[in-house]
Amino acid sequence: MKIRFGPAMLKLLPALALLAGGAEAIASTLNQNASWTIDRAGTTAKYRVVSYGDSIFAGYNGSVSSAAKYAGPVVQAEYLSAVWNADIEQVRRTKSGAVASDVYNNKIVAERSYMQSSTTRVVAFEMCGNDGLQARTAFKNQSGTCDTSGLETALSNCKTYVAKAMDYINANAYAGTKLKIISNLHYPGYAADNVQSSCKSASTGTTVNIQNTLLPYIAKMNFAMCDLARQKGFACADSFAQYMGADYDSNGDGKVDSDALRYVAGETEADYVNRITTTLRSTIRDANTHFVSASSSYDYIQSDDTHPTYTGGTITAGLFGSSTGSGAPRYTSFTGGKSPIWNQYGHERLGWGLSVSNPAAP
Asked: Which listed site, 42, 68, 315, 316, has its alpha carbon 20 to 30 Å from 224?
């Protein structure tokens, strides 16, 4: 049988080829929208959580037609359902491969109606990951004298569009919204970046360590996200700390690593960057091996070395449509505010991190 592609599909074929190559090959973008309702037994009230972002909130799994059912935003909705004893409609409006400006313009602004519903109680977003990934790829491909201008541009764009997004959500979300929250960036490929560059430093004439070069930029992006959140009435889920720090005290400073790495409200950018890149640098570990104790670890990152791991199957989300469905919560209650698998998968950890700021009532 001969398969014929129409004009619309022919336009999509280059994107399909690029997406198949992995996260850093995403030169085109892929809308991955979904709506999933946590249908809690014996309840009648239903509230909405709207989550805007790129492939992280989408639950990207390498497929152009499916995504993780229990991506971080849906996990957050499960926690809300238990706290509020209500059904929670979790709406993901996401675009894998999108840079911050794209998430802002084509998701948050263009699809603002989703957060304007009178049932909306939580609006979450994340962005900037693809700005960083693209700048990293460009830096790795350099020869001659190293040029960090691309990294500076990624940082500047991140700051600009995070601020715009917060202002726009503040102005447009339903007035009864109880929580507005941003999730900052983990550092995918942290261990793989511990190599020398092909380009050479203008000052020393030698190659530079890529990890050492990139970490301060990621730290500045993450500081901007959390500090802008503090200024503009948002909560900040510190995914960098949750992913990159162990769940025990590995350096004997009296603090669990994942707690010690968190953004501290009111600290300066210089203090935060120094804490991440110098003071606590020895406690940062690649999230492929997230230690929950000194002897036990879980893999938070998929084989693409970028996207979070997940459990619970997939839903249709991508080139061939999106899912709208419902299902009972996997857990009806949470001892100590944590599911039994809260720290075993990347998306479970993301959802728990978002849930820490959940309001007590709708």
From this structure: 68
Domain count, the chain: 1
362 part of a folded domain: no
One-letter-per-residue 3-state SS of 19-57: HCCCHHHCCCCEECCEEEEECCCCCCCEEEEEEEECHHH
Q: Say whether pTM exceeds 0.70.
A: yes
The whole domain housing 87 covers 7-355
Q: What percent of the chain has pLDDT over 90?
A: 91
Map residue 60 onto helix, strand or coil: strand
pLDDT digits (tens, 9 = 90+) for 151-188: 999 999 999 999 999 999 999 999 999 999 999 999 99
Angle at 177 between CA 307 and CA 173, to 5 degrees: 80
Tokens of 126: 């994340």
Contacts of residue 122, Cβ cutoff 8 Å, sequence gap at least 6: 48, 49, 50, 76, 80, 177, 178, 179, 180, 181, 358, 359
Kindly tell me the sign of the dihedral angle through the C-alpha atoms of 218, 219, 222, 227.
negative
2 is a domain residue:
no
361 assigned to some structural domain = no
**Rounded to 5 degrees, what are φ and ψ at 324?**
-130, 115
Asked whether the CA dihedral 141, 146, 147, 152 is positive or negative, the reply is: positive
Domain of residue 143, CATH code: 3.40.50.1110
Name the token pair of 117. 């519903």
- Structural contact between residues 283 and 290, judged by C-beta atoms closer than 8 angstroms: no
